[in-house]
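Changelog-linked ticket: adenosine-5'-triphosphate example.
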Amino acid sequence: MWDSFLGKRLKGCGYALKGALLLLRNEASIQVQAAIAVIMTFAGFYFEISTTEWMFQIFAIGLVLSIEGLNTAAEEIADFVHPDFHNKIGFIKDIAAGAVFFAAITAVIIGCIIYIPKL
Ligand SMILES: Nc1ncnc2c1ncn2[C@@H]1O[C@H](COP(=O)(O)OP(=O)(O)OP(=O)(O)O)[C@@H](O)[C@H]1O
């Protein structure tokens, strides 16, 4: 029983990893966010930010990448169920993008709080 339970969970992790790689390989918005994450990681080492600052920075990076990934999923579903122009599809895509906006603003504010005093 445990074998099949653990096997299923491991398989699930495999699909999730595959999804993360698909996002990184195919989605321009995720690639841009990932590039910013790499730059911010170098900045973190350069400015020798504290453990707490690292935690907030890593949390902000994870938040933006996660919401951006969900936004991509929402766009894909919208295009799949209704490939033609429709006001409702536009609304769905706009609010999904709005969710990314909230995450991005949060990350920018965290970045400003960490780095502005160090400049
Ligand atoms: N099928 C549609 N019906 C109505 N409005 C749409 C539709 N597709 C896109 N839009 C509008 O255009 C905006 C941008 O859509 P979308 O993100 O799919 O385009 P894109 O610029 O090609 O994005 P990406 O480059 O991330 O694929 C949406 O937020 C929405 O306002």
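Closing comment: Example verified and attached. The mean pLDDT is 96. Residues 28-118 form a domain with the Helix Hairpins fold (CATH 1.10.287.3610).
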